[in-house]
Design brief:
Shape: globular
Distance between the termini: 28 Å
Radius of gyration: 14 Å
Helix content: 25-40%
Structural class: alpha+beta
Number of helices: 6
Number of strands: 6
Amino acid sequence: MDRLTVEHAHDGETGFIVAKETIALPPVIADGPRVDEAVRTAGDRTVIAFATADRCAPCQQYKKDAMNNPAVIERLRGGEFVVTHVEVDRERTLADAYLGGAAIPMTYALRDGERVAVLRGQRSADELMAWLAEVAAM
C-alpha cells in the first residue's frame, strides 16, 4: 500500500501532514448513527467507530484504501456491527466521551459503551478486515 497517495502538504507550523482533498465515506459509515446513539441502540452488537478528521492526510488515505474497499463495506453491512464515524474536529465532546480522545486515524470497537479493541493508524483493507474478524470473535 502506498502510504499517502491523497494530495497533501506538510504544515511546518503544526507539524501535521494536512490533506488537500477529502475522501467521501461510504454510505455504510456515513449514514450510521452518531456514536452516542450507536452505543445506546447497539444491544448485543459491537459498535465500530471510525475516528478521522478532514484535515488529516493519513485519515483520508485510510478512507481511500480501507474504508471504501468493497470487501470492508460488505463486512460492515453484514449486521453484526453498528457502524459509526466521529469527525473529531467537529465532535470533540463525543470523541472524548466515547473514544477517550481525539487521536486520528483510529478505529474502535465498543461494547456497552466501553472500548474493547483499538486499531491505531491508517491501515490497509486487509489489516482492517483481519481486525474486524478478531473483534467479531471476541
